[in-house]
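Protocol step 4 of 6: record predicted structures for both targets in the notebook before any analysis. Target 1:
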Amino acid sequence: MKLHLGLGTLHRLALSAAKRRQARILCDEPIVSFTFDDFPRSALDAGGRLLEEHGAHGTYYVSPALLNASNHLGELFHVEDLHSLLLRGHELGSHTFGHVSAKTLSPEDFWKNVEKGKEAIRTLTGVSPEDFAYPFGALTPRIKQHTHGVKSARSVIPGLNKRIFDLNLLRANSLYGDVDTVSHAVQMIANNVRNRAWLIFYTHDVRQMPSPYGCTPALLDMVMQEALRSQSRLLSVQEALALCEELPAG
C-alpha cells in the first residue's frame, strides 16, 4: 500500500529531523505552560493577573521593534511593562528584534536579528532572555539547522513535548477565541496527563473581544483551572526547563 503524505506533513517531518537538541523531562508530574507572543499589554494586564491568581507564571516573547506600537492585537508593551513583568516573576523571552519571518531571511541574517533582539532586551531591562519563539511560527529546516544562542526555540507545531523532546522545536498549541473552544484544550490537558508530558499553549491578546489570535479572560481562566484540576504543574518555559536535562549530542 502506498503512503501519500501531504506537503504540510513532509515539511513537519523535515523540521523535526533538522538539528535536534534532545532533552529529558525529569519530574513525574505533567507540566502546562502558558505563553504570549508579541506581548500585547492585555496579555499581562489580564493574562498575567490570572496566572498570578493561580500561583503561576507565564512566558512573554518580545520583539523590541514592537515597543509602544498598536495593531490588531491592541496596544503593545511599553518599557514599564517589561519591568513589571519581571518583578511579578514572569519570564521574558525573545522573538527576534523586528518580528521577522524565518522564511524571509538567510539563516545568518535571521539569527543576527535574534541576537539583536536579545541585546535590545538586555539594554532595556538588564535581563538576557534565554528562550525564543519563531515569529508567525515560520520556520525552515535551514533556519533550524543553524539554531544557536538560545536555550529553547518554540514553534507553533501542535502536540506535546513528551518525556524526550527537541529543544530546537518546542511544540505548542494555540489558545484562541472564547469559552466555546475550551473542549479541545481540555482534551489536550488530559492527553498530557496520560503521557506525563509538557503541554505549551500560546496566544496573543487577552480581552473580552479578542483578535483572531487572542482569547478571552474567561477561556484562559477555564483552561488554567482545568490544568490545576488535572494535578499539572503550571510553569513558565524557563521554570519547566529547570526540571529537564539536555541529552548529549548524537
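Target 2:
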Amino acid sequence: MSDISSRMKTAWNSRARRDAYFYVETTFWNNDKAAFFALGEARSVTLIDPVLNAHGIAGAGATAIDLGCGVGRFTQALGRRFGTVIGLDVSEDMVTQARSAAHGLPGLSFTATDGMAMPLPDASADFIWSYEVFQHMPSHDVMLSNLREVARTLRPARYALLHFRTAHAYPAALWHIARLMPPPLMRALKQALGKDPLTADASWRGASPVSRTAIQEMCKAAALEIVEFLEDPTHRPGTRIFALLRRK
C-alpha cells in the first residue's frame, strides 16, 4: 500500500471511529439515523433518478457502485433501484458500520479499498455514483487514478455520475495556508482554536478545486467521455458540479 493510501485510510478510520455519520454529513447530522438515510433517498430522487430515467440504466439485472460510500446512505438508496450494489470506501471502519446499517437488505455488499483502485473486474458496472468524495481526495493524481478505475470498471455505453468541487466555499487563501503547514502543526492549531483536529489533513481538505476544463482533461486522460455537466442544487452555486461520464 502506498504512503498516500495509508494516510487516507488512517485518517478516515479515525473519523469513522469518532462519529462516522457526522463526517459523512457534517451539515445535517443530528444524531437521527433514520433522517440521515432518508436524506440519502431524497437526494437520490433529485440527483440520480433523472439520469437513470433519461438513460434507462437501472433495473434488477444491473449493477451499481457507490464510490466512497461511507456508511452507505446512497448505497441503500441505489439498492432500491439496482439488483446489485457495491459500496466502496477507503475506511474499513466505515465499511463495517455500513454493513451493520444495511443488515438484511438484499443485493448490497461493501468492500474497503486503498482509495486508489477498485477491487472489481473490468467492465462489471452499469452505473457508478460518487458524491462529496472527490472533493476530499488529497491530490489530482489520486483523482485521476480513481477516474481511470471508473473507466476500467464501467461496461461499454454505461454511465458514471461523479461529483467535483469547482471552487472553495471559503476564502481560498485559507486552503493554501493549510496546505503549506505541516499536519501536526495544523492539528495543534485547529485544536487551539476549538476546531476539529481530524479535519486538519489533506484527506479532508482535499486537492485544489477543479474547473470544467480540468475535469475534461482528467477524464480524457482516463479514457472517459463527458456526456454533460449538471449543476448541483445541494451546495452553494458555483462550488460543486456533477459530470455525467461514459467510457470511451
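Step 5 preliminary note on target 2. DSSP finds nine helices and seven strands in the chain. The chain has one domain: 3-247.
Proceed to step 6 after PI sign-off.
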